[in-house]
Design goal:
2 copies of one chain form a homodimer. By secondary structure, the first copy, chain A, is α+β, with helices and mostly antiparallel strands. Chain A has 2 domains: 76 residues, Orthogonal Bundle (Arc Repressor Mutant, subunit A), CATH 1.10.10.10; 29 residues, no CATH class. Helices cover 47% and strands 21% of the residues of chain A. The first copy, chain A, has a 3-stranded antiparallel beta sheet with strand order 1-3-2. Chain A has a two-stranded antiparallel sheet with strand order 4-5. The first copy, chain A, binds a DNA duplex through helix 3 and helix 4.
Chain lengths: 123, 123
DNA sequence: GACATATGTCCATTATTCTAGAAATATGGA
DNA sequence: TCCATATTTCTAGAATAATGGACATATGTC
């Protein structure tokens, strides 16, 4: 993920309605949820929500597919992983957070040194 | 980190100048860098940069301390770790990213399953 | 104290984003 | 075809954010 993409994703997440939508979609997993259900659950007018869903879709945060009369939205988990990777690699220091590939599992392993503050280099 | 705090941090990171400032500060580590150096490095007028640094400071993303005539800004690495933790816990699914404490090292370990997509539950 | 340096504050302008009413589009069913 | 449902698009006003010139403040040096 480059810096321009990251800005777009941060922007999409920096608004209450949108962040709530996203977290709700995360709860719905890969199955997703229809726009109307989100509108109702979050108590946001359908046209306002549509504006935000469109915003999120442009940012790549969500995908949508029609199913009958409904349009089902799903969270983009891949993007979320990329974003986490960006924060670790580009917005943190190796002293505080590091990322590496685990060959065996094929997973990326991130270590957050939240309990072991680095010794300050005395200048 | 709660959702309100997350929105504030995302907002602070969702603007090009601010994200560039933050990444530059990350490179400067715990030592930080003076406002003027940032202004010069990023080619942003000092007053405009001051506006953004103030924005970032309010969000808790950076800290500042005076040193002679300069004001030294430093990235808040703790907040960055909290943000990464928030994304993993609240904005991702356990199938895609999980976080656990490693008793021995005292670190939080995050596993990003970026190479092992979960088997879809056939409905 | 006079001056240069480093940074912040004030202000007006411009640009962008959010909101929700009204109308439009798409789908499915009687 | 007619109607209800689900959602989006259009639109305009309101709110918020970004920009940079001019000025103010704080610090260090001579």
């Amino acid at each position: 993920m480059d810096i321009q993409k990251a800005i777009i994703v941060f922007d999409a997440l920096s608004q209450e309605t949108r962040l709530r939508v996203f977290r709700l979609l995360v709860e719905h997993g890969t199955q997703g949820a229809p726009a109307g259900k989100l509108s109702e659950a979050l108590d946001v007018p359908h046209n306002t929500l549509s504006f935000h869903l469109n915003h999120m879709s442009n940012a790549g945060l969500v995908a949508s597919k029609r199913e009958g009369r409904s349009i089902i939205y799903t969270a983009n988990f891949d993007l979320m992983r990329d974003l986490i990777g960006f924060l670790v690699k580009d917005c943190c220091s190796v002293e505080f957070a590091s990322i590496r590939k685990d060959k065996k599992s094929g997973c990326s392993i991130i270590e957050l040194a939240d309990c072991c503050p680095p010794k300050e280099k005395k200048a």
